[in-house]
Design brief:
about 0% strand
C-alpha cells in the first residue's frame, strides 16, 4: 500500500516536478540513503517511467508469489486481514484511476504506449489482489467498495462482482445468501441521481442493473423474493419521462430477466409494467435512433409474453425482425382465445376507422 501511495505522489512527468520541495514533503516514508526512494531531479523522464513500471510489476509478482500467498493462507487474524484487503483493493483502484487519467492526458504524445502498458499492468495487479480473496471475504469487501466515494471505484467493484458471478458455477448456500444481501445496495445505486458526476452516474446505474440481472439469472429461481423490489425499481425507471436512454435499455433487459424468473410472482406488477412497456414501444423516433434501446424493448416484450428461447442471427437488424416475428407467432398461438379475440376485435375496429 505504501508503494502505491508513493507512486501516486510522484509527478506524472519530470517537467511536472516542482523540485526538491516536492521530494522533501513526500508523505509516504519509503527512503534510501539520500533521504528519498527515487530522486526525480537526478533521474531522466525515461527512468521515472521505468521506475513506475518496475514498481507495479514487482507488486504484481509479489501478490502471486508462493511465499506471499502462503502467508495470507496461514494468517489467523481473519478480521484484520479482511480490512487490509479492502484497503489494498481501494488503493489499487485509486491508482488505476490515476493511471487511467494519465492515459487520457497523453493520448497524442510519444509516451501514450507506456501509459497504456502501465494501465494493463495495474489491472493485472488488481486481478492478483482479487485472486487472493476467498469468496467469504470477497463479497463483504465488494460491498464495502460499492459505497466508496469515487464513482469509478464503485463501478470497478460491480465489474469485479459481475466477473465473479459469470465465472463461478458452484456456490455454497451461505455465499448465495451473502450475494443476495447485495441486491438492496445495487437497487440504491440504480435509484441514485446526483447532479454532479452525471455521466459517471449513468454508467454506474447501467452496471448495477446488469449486476442485478446476473444475480437474478443465477439465483432468482430458488430465491425470488429479493427480486420483486428489483422489478418494481426497473418499472419505475421505464415509466419515467426524463430517464437516460441507455439506463432505460439496461432496465428493460433487467425487466426481461426478472419477469421470466419470477413467473407468477411478477403478475401483480403487470398492470404497471405493460402500459410503460407499450408506451416505450410507441416512441418510434427514439427507438429507431438507438438500435440497442430498440432491441432491449423488443426483448423485454418477448420475455414478458413468456418466450423462453430465442434463436439469434447475426446482425442487430436481423435479430429485431426475428424477435418481432417470434412475438407475432407467440401472441397468435399461445394466448388463450378469451384474451386474444377481444384484443384483436378492439384493435381491428381502431385500424378500420383510421383506414390503416
Amino acid at each position: 500500500m505504501k508503494i502505491i501511495q508513493y507512486l501516486t505522489e510522484l509527478p506524472e512527468n519530470k517537467e511536472d516536478d516542482p523540485g526538491p520541495k516536492k521530494s522533501r514533503t513526500c508523505k509516504t516514508k519509503l527512503k534510501n540513503q539520500d533521504g528519498q526512494l527515487f530522486n526525480v531531479e537526478s533521474h531522466s523522464d525515461k527512468q521515472l517511467r521505468h521506475f513506475k513500471f518496475l514498481s507495479v510489476s514487482f507488486m504484481s509478482q509479489l501478490l502471486s508469489s508462493q511465499s506471499f500467498v502462503k502467508k495470507i493462507v496461514e494468517c489467523e487474524e481473519r478480521e484484520e486481514l479482511q480490512k487490509l484487503e479492502q484497503r489494498l483493493l481501494e488503493e489499487v483502484l485509486h491508482y488505476i484511476n490515476t493511471v487511467a487519467s494519465s492515459v487520457e492526458g497523453n493520448v497524442d504524445k510519444p509516451t501514450a504506449k507506456f501509459w497504456r502498458v502501465l494501465l494493463n499492468k495495474s489491472y493485472d495487479m488488481l486481478d492478483k489482489v482479487n485472486a487472493l480473496l476467498p469468496t467469504e471475504t470477497f463479497i463483504p469487501v465488494i460491498r464495502g467498495l460499492m459505497t466508496n466515494q469515487l464513482p469509478s471505484v464503485r463501478r470497478k467493484a460491480m465489474d469485479l462482482l459481475n466477473n465473479k458471478v459469470q465465472q463461478r458455477t458452484r456456490w455454497q448456500k451461505s455465499q448465495i445468501l451473502q450475494l443476495l444481501e447485495l441486491v438492496p445496495e445495487l437497487i440504491a445505486i440504480v435509484q441514485c441521481r446526483r447532479k454532479e458526476e452525471e455521466e459517471e452516474q449513468a454508467i454506474n446505474r447501467q452496471t448495477a442493473l446488469f449486476s442485478l440481472k446476473l444475480l437474478c439469472r443465477g439465483f432468482g429461481t430458488e430465491n425470488p423474493v429479493p427480486f420483486v423490489p428489483v422489478l418494481k425499481t426497473a418499472i419505475d425507471l421505464i415509466s419515467s419521462e426524463k430517464e437516460e436512454k441507455n439506463v432505460m435499455g439496461s432496465a428493460l433487459l433487467c425487466i426481461a430477466e426478472v419477469t421470466c424468473t419470477l413467473k407468477a410472482q411478477a403478475i401483480p406488477q403487470l398492470p404497471r409494467l405493460m402500459p410503460a412497456l407499450l408506451k416505450t414501444l410507441k416512441n418510434k423516433k427514439e427507438l429507431v435512433s438507438n438500435e440497442i434501446y430498440l432491441l432491449s424493448a423488443v426483448t423485454a416484450l418477448l420475455k414478458v409474453v413468456r418466450l423462453e428461447k430465442i434463436a439469434v442471427e447475426f446482425g442487430p437488424s436481423s435479430q429485431i425482425s426475428l424477435r418481432v416475428t417470434s412475438l407475432k407467432t407467440i401472441l397468435a398461438t399461445r394466448l388463450a382465445p378469451r384474451i386474444l379475440l377481444p384484443a384483436v376485435t378492439k384493435c381491428y375496429g381502431e385500424v378500420a376507422n383510421t383506414r390503416k
